[in-house]
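Predict structure. Chain length: 242.
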Amino acid sequence: MSVLNRWKDAWVIFKRDLRGDRLYLIWNVLFMLYMALMMSFMFQYDERGAFLLEPMADFLMLLLIPFTGFYFSRRSFNYLKEDSYTQMLRFYRTLPIPADAVMLGRIIQLVTAIFFNGVFYFPALYLLSATLRSELSLAEYIAFALTWCGYGLLLNGVYIYFEFLKKGSVYLWMSLSSMVLVALLAFVVNGFGGNLIKLTVDYSGRYALLSPLVWGSLVCGTLGLSLFAAVTKRKLAVRDLA
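Prediction complete.
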């Protein structure tokens, strides 16, 4: 299959999914604004003027940022009851549409979702948090946002792997397990006196878009996503969808 045809099929898949669930985009916007409001309460100063973060801040950020890679849709709401992702793959295989076009369509969906959701989440968080505005200029805050977008790319690679290769019940347990793992990570880091958000704020404030965390996160996120996508595409081609 030529590269041009693969991209053409991928865009058809992306536009078909988006066109069928346009009303669900409202839920995306509302959820992103709710996330921003909830996170804004985690940033504060103490009585001495020192910059503090609630202990739950890392956990919430690690948990919620991957959601910027999703568009809410009937499929995402019904994946457990109807195993909707498997049904989608079965439908595309009957057309037939090759696995690499399906995967490319999902990557396009991921990248556009991160952009669409990020446009609402990150500016809203910056506007709602006076502490963030006092710590970071606009350029520095963009570096902060991009750092977390890199993490979102990496985690969404894992979600895509389970979304395409496992049944809805397994995908649910993976999602619950990821919550436990990010909670453990957040509290282990906190137990050693660290804080991931404070680290990204400090590096972004010091180096802005030259921050090594920005580019390290984006490179690791892109490479991790590419690796998971390659493995998923290879296994998807031979997955039994019966």
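Summary: The chain has a mean pLDDT of 85.
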